[in-house]
Amino acid sequence: MDDIYPVSAAAAAGTRCDAATYAAMHGQALADPDTFWRGQVDRLQWVRKPRVMGNWRWDPVNIRWFEDGVLNVSVNCLDRWAAADPERLAIIWEADDPAVPNRRLSYGELLGETCRMANALADMGVRRGDRVTITMPMIPEAAVAMLACARLGAVHSVVFGGFSPEAIAGRIADADSRFVVTADAGMRGGKVVPLKAHVDAALAIEPRVAAVLVVRHSGAEVAMVPGRDRWWHEVRGGVAKVSPPEPMGAEDPLFILYTSGSTGKPKGVLHTQAGYLLWANLTFETVFDYRAGELFWCTADVGWVTGHSYIVYGPLSAGATVLMFEGVPTWPEVDRFWAVVAKHKVNIFYTAPTALRSLMREGEAPVERHDLSSLRLLGTVGEPINPEAWRWYHRVVGKGRLPIVDTWWQTETGGAMMTPLPGAHPAKPGAAGFPFFGVAPALVDADGRFIEGNDVSGNLVLTASWPGQARTVYGDHQRFVETYFTAYHGLYFTGDGARRDADGQWWITGRVDDVINVSGHRLGTAEVESALVGHAAVAEAAVVGFPHDIKGQGIYAYVTLKAGVEGSDALVADLRAEVRRSIGPIASPDHIHLTPALPKTRSGKIMRRILRKIAENEHGSLGDVSTLADPAVVEALVAGRLNR
Ligand code: WTA
């Protein structure tokens, strides 16, 4: 029997969506999407209200929503709240170092800053449609930069601050981006992240960038290139604090966000203006059951989609107040998250299972030290949550009374897709609940046949489009089609496996492709392999994930060396450094297993299934090995396995 947590009276009181409302909305959104979405478009402020709702097909792939609508995203996130109530708080900022004073930006101030930055970007030459790369610490100017692009109709590409210069350069080149917004440096856990130096190194590789705007934050000494680089604080005073919002077509691009897949380099997932914003707005209000005046804290970084949708676009388009936190959960002490919740009286807290697992390890005392009575709702995202961590979250952080929304979604979906709704659905630890309005999940087997009924597992597909769906891969529509719509013709393939249980609740079982999820960060095994073979000593590399207590998945790399190269600890350290240089510290392998050979079929295909089993320390159940060219290779790998 699953453990079930029914909807509490407190969660049901005043909810936007009880069980009956969910049934009606969900039913209508699937049966009559036109009427359903017509009823939602007034969530946004339009220059021209759309008359066409969804207009999409997946063969050939052409996805459009609200296509005749015209709006400006920054107006929706700022002007309408600033006009009604300029003093309303938009962002409360908490620095990495608890001794640094907080910043509080009202909607009026955030609008002024955004307009100023839009004018500064325009002075640098940024025009509608241009791609602007943003690599920033978690400071309000990160949101300002994104919204300033939206105001001008420029397309932002936010690159997570933990990526290496080489990774930044690759994204700049792919997006053909000639503008960068960054900061001198970020602070994380008391350590300096030299962002400007990373940008400088990236631009040495990729010189097409014409202008760089640098926000002074840490005060770190940085080199400024005359004619290319300018300080935000120097230009800020000289530009107007009003900026006319560019009227944008609903299907004009809003942003590109690079994400990893099974093959090749990260792809630039492209989201457009209206459908994305409406999805972020509707899911934000409904999933978190947001109530006016509440303080919402999403602990993600703006470099990931969770930060885009639930720090910036969802909450601000709803006129909410968000907490933005620069630091990490465990610094200066392991109780930092709880200290911040208590200090600011956070009402809704949204984090990743990997953070909870690392905090759980510290026991209950760090949580108990703080008054968490302001909390009303908890959420998780990014990877499956193990039931043990869910129960700890519920009992210790939620005092056994707070609902938890476990939200399943992806960069490509724009916002939450499956979750228990707090006022409508009983929750089961580890389950992602039910599909959101308009979401049509299904399970298919390896041959693409639908798996009907309940208490079944398979590959997770979606059978209908929703407004938040990514429209293409930037510059490579064919890759978009191949990645998502080719495995199962006419269906969107998520890359995840799932189970629909006896009650119709959905459980995400993890990726079924060559993507691994390390501390909630998505990485392609192919990317790590390509970094490893970039090292002069390496002949071949095969990378797989394995279960990791804290990170969810760890990275296990099997490497063969070129003839004549001797393996050593120094070489292993060098290989690890190569991965950090090429991608960033998040991709650093936990284990690098040097081996004279990889297990291959007689036709030369690497048998990853076997490598996964060995990495998982499950070598007792290797399955069929009869197609192996040389069974002795496997015996040697098992004997030398590094994860025991
Ligand atoms: C995984 C993050 C289980 C999943 C928003 C998905 C989850 C990938 C959950 C997307 C969840 C995300 N339960 N698995 N609640 N949320 N995932 O693009 O494998 O960084 O395909 O988007 O994370 O990761 P991405």
UniProtKB/TrEMBL annotation:
It holds the Pfam family AMP-binding. ATP binds at G382, E383, P384, D406, T407, W408, W409, Q410, T411, D496, R511, R522. Mg(2+) binds at V533, H535, V538. The modification N6-acetyllysine is found at K605. CoA binds at R188, G189, G190, K191, T306, S519, R580. SUPFAM superfamilies: Acetyl-CoA synthetase-like. The keyword Nucleotide-binding applies. Its cofactor is Mg(2+). It comes from the Bacteria. Catalyzes the conversion of acetate into acetyl-CoA (AcCoA), an essential intermediate at the junction of anabolic and catabolic pathways. AcsA undergoes a two-step reaction. In the first half reaction, AcsA combines acetate with ATP to form acetyl-adenylate (AcAMP) intermediate. In the second half reaction, it can then transfer the acetyl group from AcAMP to the sulfhydryl group of CoA, forming the product AcCoA. Belongs to the ATP-dependent AMP-binding enzyme family. This is Acetyl-coenzyme A synthetase. It comes from Sandaracinobacteroides saxicola.
